[in-house]
Specification:
mainly alpha, Growth Hormone, Chain: A, 80% helix
């Protein structure tokens, strides 16, 4: 991988997925811990997906002209870290739904803009490998993260997990922010 921007986007994304992946399947356990049931978990997840879907469509349009994709992506990364830290304040299933809505919005800002930037800066001769790296490495990062996340909750607490997740996602955002300084 010779392209500096492609490399930056890939590694920043892997770090971001690692931070989010720490929670993985523990979401259901956490929702039960705050008094949620199966329907609460379903609602929270459905709200996340619905908000992500609607806002992604809007962001796709906005990112094609109004604002630099790099900045929009970074706002999404920053909001994602902020809402990850917000898990620390969740006390009820309603609070959880609010955090999930915020995370859906953040994801909708970051994901399509990241994908557009990655497509622009990918190595054209090896596009299959380039996208294979993006999908494969993020899955591997999440797999490792899930194991670490489970360990952190088992050994310490969900609060420790959320702080670690937020810190990692903040680092990912700062790492990705370097894209603003790469000369075109």
């Amino acid at each position: 991988m010779k392209n500096k921007t492609e490399h930056l986007l890939l590694w920043g994304s892997n770090l971001w997925y690692f931070g989010g992946g720490l929670f993985g399947p523990l979401f259901a356990v956490y929702a039960e811990k705050i008094g949620g049931n199966i329907l609460d978990i379903s609602w929270a997840w459905a709200l996340y997906l619905f908000v992500t879907g609607v806002v992604q469509i809007l962001v796709g349009k906005i990112s094609d002209g109004v604002m630099r994709k790099e900045r929009l992506m970074l706002v999404g990364y920053a909001l994602n870290a902020l809402f990850t830290f917000s898990y620390l304040f969740v006390k009820t299933p309603f609070h959880l739904s609010l955090v999930q809505i915020g995370l859906g919005f953040a994801t909708a800002l970051a994901t399509p803009t990241w994908e557009a930037l990655y497509a622009i800066h990918q190595s054209k001769k090896t596009s299959g490998m380039t996208w294979g790296l993006a999908g494969g490495e993020s899955s591997i990062a999440c797999a490792v993260a899930i194991l670490i996340g489970g360990y952190l909750v088992q050994r310490y607490s969900f609060s420790v997990l959320f702080v670690v997740m937020g810190i990692i996602q903040t680092i990912a955002m700062i790492y990705q922010a370097r894209i603003l300084f790469i000369k075109k």
